[in-house]
Amino acid sequence: MTSHGQPDTYVLGVDSGGSGLRVALGTAGADAPLATVACGGPVRTGPRGIDAAHLLDQVLPAVRGLLDGHAPGGRITAAAVGAAGMATLGDGLRAELPGALADALGVRRIALAADAVTAYAGAVGQRPGAVVAAGTGLIALGTDLTEWRRADGWGHLLGDSGGGAWIGRAGLDAAMRAYDGRRGGSRALLARLEAVFGPPQELPGLLYPRADRPALLASFAPEVAVCADRDPVAAGILREAAAHIAEAAAAVCPEAEADEDGYEVALTGGLFRMGEPLLVPLREELAQLLPRARAVPGSGDPLIGALRIAQALDTGGLRLPRHPTLLCVPAPGPRS
Amino acid sequence: MTSHGQPDTYVLGVDSGGSGLRVALGTAGADAPLATVACGGPVRTGPRGIDAAHLLDQVLPAVRGLLDGHAPGGRITAAAVGAAGMATLGDGLRAELPGALADALGVRRIALAADAVTAYAGAVGQRPGAVVAAGTGLIALGTDLTEWRRADGWGHLLGDSGGGAWIGRAGLDAAMRAYDGRRGGSRALLARLEAVFGPPQELPGLLYPRADRPALLASFAPEVAVCADRDPVAAGILREAAAHIAEAAAAVCPEAEADEDGYEVALTGGLFRMGEPLLVPLREELAQLLPRARAVPGSGDPLIGALRIAQALDTGGLRLPRHPTLLCVPAPGPRS
Description:
The structure is a homodimer. Chain A folds into two domains: 145 residues, Nucleotidyltransferase, domain 5; 160 residues, Nucleotidyltransferase, domain 5. Chain A is built from twelve helices and 13 strands. In chain A, a hairpin with a 3-residue loop joins strand 8 and strand 9. By secondary structure, chain A is α/β, with parallel strands linked by helices. Helices cover 42% and strands 21% of the residues of chain A. Chains A and B meet through strand 10, helix 5, helix 7 and helix 10 of A and strand 10, helix 5, helix 7 and helix 10 of B. Chains A, B: This is ATPase. Chains A, B: It holds the Pfam family BcrAD_BadFG.
């Protein structure tokens, strides 16, 4: 049953990320999805950014399969598509996807969201607050429900400070310092480098020709965490990462909106699975920079966030601020 | 006249770098080259590393032209080829170049050197000491004339700490922090970013698709120097770069070899054209880490270094240590 009291209508959340595409089917009333499915690898990008046709080719059969299996005869009334790179790569998607979804599924209410926004919606919901979404990269997004504030997310050469690639790169730098006999080196990290990658002098030849350099750097971040309890250089790297994460959170927090209870800073994404070696210094840095904030694990992932946006859209209750690239809600098309 | 007392014999220095190929013709006795010529763009690299045939295709006509113009009837008795990437990319060159040079020019004594070694030979000569060669990247090389010590030169993701790409990246990071409102930002550097690259939020789209990302990062290093006299963040970046440069020098210095006068640390490469904003903190950091070292500008560039190695080879007086990848001197072929 939907909140409109009409049976047979459903909402759709789509999460298109670097590691693949997932779809969730839900109803406007229920918090949890009816069903979710992973439906293919990363969506191609072309000269106009994310390839809308390639996305649809993967999403539409998955949606029809979900409807057939879980809601025979049902129709989709609202959909939200969250995509990595929407802010910079979403021109093609914004131009083509709403019409195509309307044509193919009869969906009239559609939202296109940057993955940081679906991360926010999944982790925080429709309240004021902030999210730090961190994996290989790192971005912080906050809102007072009037406007969005964004910090970092600039990629491994311009920022993503404190994210997985940043931590891994700092760890490899410290390992190479030890190999050279330079100040600031860590023999513990050098031993991990040798165990993971082989001879240090051959690491440049392994790393630079690859297209997925940030991911390779990030793959070393857990080694830094492993060394942190006995190696001061590794612990220092995580302390500095924690400071950068807190700085990004502080730049986007809606301080003015905080009531007596303060407000939540949700931490979401694979980086925080690193656990206490990162979370202990992070809680300390957050306490110093944002004394009224409560750091909490995000309650839902970006797919759940996309579904929540679609649910809110369906009931006319979307409180998150519209934004040309972060959260774009085209006017509904004519009823099909 | 050569040192063998035979007229008509000459020596050859070749410098193959990222920005192109240069050749110098000299005699064993005279310090300065008879003539130098630039002869083409960067040498191709293939699966076996630097492409020996492509290098020869450009070098041989240039050598014949130099001989015709400056030493008609002369012949080359010794040659030294310095190449960027020799340490990691030189397998093909080491296998093919000596025989090919012997066949084409009758050269019997040949040295193949990493560009850091030709930088050393150009800047320091055949004495114990150390060189820091810095442009987009940064490498330090030192010797007590028994063995080489190398530090850094690991590329922009693993090190090159304090080099041009490192300084430029740190400057852009500080600019993006100011744009976000994060701690550690510099409004002066943000203004320079906007003047040079345009809207900050479009910089990731400009940078990441390019193949020459390190060069683009390094192009921002002079902007950091320009801001340093009035902006503490920019000054802090150059102070940290200076510390990294001193750390690399300290890791390779032949401390035990120093006589009462101490020893020289030669600073060579385009980075040091940045001048006082970098050199003032660098002299301070060197004085602290290496109190017996004298920082000096390198006397000659890598092309002059290659020529000096060829001269020393010709007279049997090469004192710089042999090394499988840094300075490789194959046994002389049969006299042609």
